[in-house]
Amino acid sequence: MVRVKICGIMDQASAWAAVEAGADAIGFVFTSSKREIAPDAAKAIIQSLPPYVTTVGVFVDEPLHRLNDLANYCRLDLIQLHGDESPVYCEHVDRPVVKTIKVKEASDLQLISAYKHVTRALLLDAYVAGEAGGTGHKLPWHLAVRAHEQGTIILAGGLDARNVEEAILATRPFAVDVSSGVETDGRKDQHKMLAFVQQARAASRHLAIL
């Protein structure tokens, strides 16, 4: 079963809509972004969630001590790094790490070998100059296929309910990560979240019989 993470959660209603849609994980952005959330707000949402929903904190080049303090305060399960954090930095994060690699061309995949032994998984996102993520741009799927051979891969970048099934069947990732693709006018849309999860589940069923 391909797991689904819905990122950029900013309020309790969106969090619960994501959970009720069937998301396995939800993400909170703790960096300068239109989806940034305050630690107090994230902590309150996390405390309200049912069991077995993985909570993920998204950070960009955060001082290590502050990241670990925030993760502990909010009781995050996983840390997702979207900046220039080194493998050594990843080793000193107190919680399991997913490291993002921004992919534009094949040479970008060379970074996987440096991080795969100090992370739980690698998240592949589209490269957009000056942007850390959540842009809605699609990464080259044929490169994601090559990355799949090197470790546990999470696919992001330009996914929505219209293309997630095709993306999963083409790349066979461990999980998919979506943010802007389930939004309407910059806010999480419960109907789009449900449709996204349903299409991801349909893809998983197809993979099971291939």
UniProtKB/TrEMBL annotation:
<dbReference type="InterPro" id="IPR044643">
    <property type="entry name" value="TrpF_fam"/>
</dbReference>
<comment type="pathway">
    <text>Amino-acid biosynthesis; L-tryptophan biosynthesis; L-tryptophan from chorismate: step 3/5.</text>
</comment>
<dbReference type="InterPro" id="IPR001240">
    <property type="entry name" value="PRAI_dom"/>
</dbReference>
<keyword id="KW-0057">Aromatic amino acid biosynthesis</keyword>
<dbReference type="InterPro" id="IPR013785">
    <property type="entry name" value="Aldolase_TIM"/>
</dbReference>
<dbReference type="GO" id="GO:0000162">
    <property type="term" value="P:L-tryptophan biosynthetic process"/>
</dbReference>
<keyword id="KW-0413">Isomerase</keyword>
<dbReference type="InterPro" id="IPR011060">
    <property type="entry name" value="RibuloseP-bd_barrel"/>
</dbReference>
<feature type="domain" description="N-(5'phosphoribosyl) anthranilate isomerase (PRAI)">
    <location>
        <begin position="4"/>
        <end position="199"/>
    </location>
</feature>
<dbReference type="Pfam" id="PF00697">
    <property type="entry name" value="PRAI"/>
</dbReference>
<keyword id="KW-0028">Amino-acid biosynthesis</keyword>
<comment type="similarity">
    <text>Belongs to the TrpF family.</text>
</comment>
<dbReference type="GO" id="GO:0004640">
    <property type="term" value="F:phosphoribosylanthranilate isomerase activity"/>
</dbReference>
<keyword id="KW-0822">Tryptophan biosynthesis</keyword>
<protein>
    <recommendedName>
        <fullName>N-(5'-phosphoribosyl)anthranilate isomerase</fullName>
        <ecNumber>5.3.1.24</ecNumber>
    </recommendedName>
</protein>
